[in-house]
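Translate sequence into structure tokens.
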Amino acid sequence: MSVMEDVILNAKTAVGSVGRKAGEVIDRSKLRIAAVDIKSELSGKYRMLGRLYYESETTGKKYDESIKKLIETITDLNEQLAAVKEAIAGSEKKIRCPECSEYNQKGAVFCSKCGAKLSSAKPPYEDDQTQEELLDFAEEIADEDIDI
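Result follows.
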């Protein structure tokens, strides 16, 4: 093998590595955007819930069914946000504290928030297929418009 072939092989390897890392950064960015979208939607739903409750208390009108539907939507959005946060943590190779649920760097022995001893369990969603499914889910959420 000549020197030129070695250079070409090393260049191909470097390009592949850079491409893979760029893909990971893009995936994390998509997840973060999905998290921001969900948080924004949650904020609007909480405001709407407060407004309905206020109207109910001040006017005497009953909005029980609307309030119940809003609470269900908020619960669903919180579950979606938790799933996206798990995927982000998994893509960043973080582990969750079993005591306080704070995310910590992989390899940490103690939690950075509460000091609890961390297990050496694998980070959530380390499996590429599961992370890919969550990315697809996050893109669907970002495109979805939930109205009440």
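Note: DSSP finds three helices and two strands in the chain.
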